Amino acid sequence: MSFAADFVALKQIGADPAGGWSRLAFSAADNAAHDWLLEAGRAAGLAARYDAFGNAILRLEGTEPRPALLIGSHLDTVRNGGAFDGAIGVLAGLEILRRLRASGQPGAPVEAISFRDEEGRFGPFTGSRAMMGQHDPDALAKARAADGEALAEVMAGSGFSPANAPRALSGIAGYLELHIEQGPVLEQAGCPLGIVTAIAGQERLSLRFTGQADHAGTAPMDLRRDAFAGAARFATAFRDLICAAGDPALRGTIGVVKLSPNQGNVVPGEVTLGLEIRSTDGGTLPRLRQRVLALAQEIAGQEQLGLRIRALYSESPVPMDPALQEALVASAAELGHRALCLPSGANHDAGILGRLVPSAMIFVPSIGGRSHCPEEETGPAPIEAAIDVLHHAVMTLRRARA
Amino acid sequence: MSFAADFVALKQIGADPAGGWSRLAFSAADNAAHDWLLEAGRAAGLAARYDAFGNAILRLEGTEPRPALLIGSHLDTVRNGGAFDGAIGVLAGLEILRRLRASGQPGAPVEAISFRDEEGRFGPFTGSRAMMGQHDPDALAKARAADGEALAEVMAGSGFSPANAPRALSGIAGYLELHIEQGPVLEQAGCPLGIVTAIAGQERLSLRFTGQADHAGTAPMDLRRDAFAGAARFATAFRDLICAAGDPALRGTIGVVKLSPNQGNVVPGEVTLGLEIRSTDGGTLPRLRQRVLALAQEIAGQEQLGLRIRALYSESPVPMDPALQEALVASAAELGHRALCLPSGANHDAGILGRLVPSAMIFVPSIGGRSHCPEEETGPAPIEAAIDVLHHAVMTLRRARA
């Protein structure tokens, strides 16, 4: 078997007649993909098992009982997602274990892991957080998908349990993840590989501007308190603020806009904006958050609007481990592949493990920057290069720590 | 009986346990209200009938066979609407017919009419348009409410027909309507009465800005084509344009905003704005429409967004009849009531009849500018004044044309 053959085989599982792949976490397709992975691992002579949460673990034992190097990603997809996101990282791990086993070289144990529910059907990074013991047990036991399905119910009969399945950190030497970039940077730079410097932290806020719903025909312009007029002014000023910061790793997005009553002949009485800021600099986020809120308050005041602010989510940046980054950079150089160091604006399982164990990531370009859609694609050459670089780095790291 | 007693009686019909009144057009409550009106008319010694569409007509015959003066409005409400919108205009007509009959004075025939479906459950101004013969017969026969109910079905068994019920224009001398302002102008001016100069025309447009949906974490700010960022800039510039025109009767509203995918971590790929402009000046609307579209195109170009424009609705202004306006102004002056001349930003049955027969309207203040809600209210004094002024004007007009 080979990566290419594995990829063809995996694409048979969860292909959606409506387009792309739908391997929603703990769905029949997702379970089948994970069963297939364990089978493929066993066929390659590896120890293969699920942990108590259902994360799939393939293991090549080391020549002595030392902490393992983990290579991981995920097999689940969003609905009508792509074939590459997560999947190529897991299959890269399987491929590298096969190569390491065939080489017979001594060194530390290495594992390939597929974390469950990276796409967050039952919450953000449910599987890797379970392995790191990061869940509030009560909340996890009651976790439900947006479609109403309960985690406990979809796990019923599988032998898995909606509880933390913590693993001893002393048994983990480090974590490496290969993933698609999901953005346009590598493609635009014409570079096949990216070495991630840090995973951005984020602040998600909900801002509700409240004015007065009025008849669009009868309310004179100067007597209105138009919540959308205020929200639109704020949106423009918000983008200006983010762009003026001059930090290319900074992101500011208003992705959600909800009007009430959202009716053609009524002046909007209420507008809720869902806003997020991402930065790889831990100091930037709270500073910028303050400036954004001050801006919203200023505009709400000028427009005679009420303003309610809710913090939805806050997460500090996760710097990638310098030694692991360096190992990836050196391997790329040694194999003659160009690699660009870049931050990850998206979060990954490496952002969960990276808070507790040394972690690093290697990116491959997303064609057109697309992901989470059937059109998601990465050329075969960058994937092959990334697997080679990751393999080379793992060989070095196994030996280096031997 | 009196206006006050009629108003108390009518409020018993269609009161909604969830708040306000729900006399949706051709619902049981709406039918009951119209049956009650015909009964009240008969009890007052008037001829009372439905036309073929279900519009309710009370008539005081004149002393000679001449065109009739019509006084009208509507008894239907929006869901959870108020007690005043439409209802007080119909009851004013009934009250004036009672006074005219009691006076025994000679003159032209006078009618009080309740037009069906003013609130547009089955389309804009379905009842008055049926009486004016303005419907496309095929479309009307197939008309459905947003809740799926078909006009033909709700009419079944009532003897009404989903077809035009055109009335000879030669039989109509003019149309007068008393209505709540549904805006804040009279209240803020401290004036009990408004004489409408014109009913605003309107342009309704749908503007769809199309960019590129991107991952909010991975897409750098300078590589985005953020449809909402463009739409927000346009919204601000649009309001500035309307306000800078310096015409107090001009209105510009963005009441509908729809994002796709409207998800917190995705740069908006598509935004549709529902926009309307209203003006009482027929020349202003097309001129302003051109400027608004040029503005949208300019901003879409700067933001590298696609733009699709759809015209949803276009209606020219309807000036009120100068002689009828003058009769109302003179009556108010004679009875010692202050009256403000103002345009109507909202459309009314007078906007339908006014295209074909001389028409005019008298407004009473809406407390807080509220309407279409349980809190809709108008004090008793302005209503009484408006009925007196309308009664006086009708007496004058009946005689004047005798």
Q: Which architecture name of the largest domain in chain A does CATH use? A: 3-Layer(aba) Sandwich
Described by its quaternary structure, the protein is homodimer
**Gyration radius of chain A, in Å:** 23 Å
Counting structural domains of chain A, the number is 2
Overall CATH class of the largest domain in chain A: Alpha Beta
Report the mean per-residue pLDDT of chain A as an integer: 96
State the CATH topology of the largest domain in chain A.
Answer: Aminopeptidase
Continuous helix count of chain A:
12
What sequence of helices (H) and strands (E) makes up the elements of chain A? HHEEEHEHHHEHEEEHEEEHEEHEHEH
**What portion of residues of chain A belong to β-strands?**
15-25%
Which secondary-structure class do the elements of chain A indicate?
Answer: alpha/beta
Give the chain pair forming the largest contact, with residue counts: A-B, 60 and 60 residues
- In total, the number of strands of chain A is 15
Largest sheet of chain A: 9 strands, mixed
DSSP helix fraction of chain A: 25-40%
**What distance separates the N and C termini of chain A?**
29 Å
Stretches of chain A where pLDDT is under 50 for at least 5 consecutive residues are none
The outline of chain A comes out as: globular
CATH superfamily grouping of the largest domain in chain A: Zn peptidases
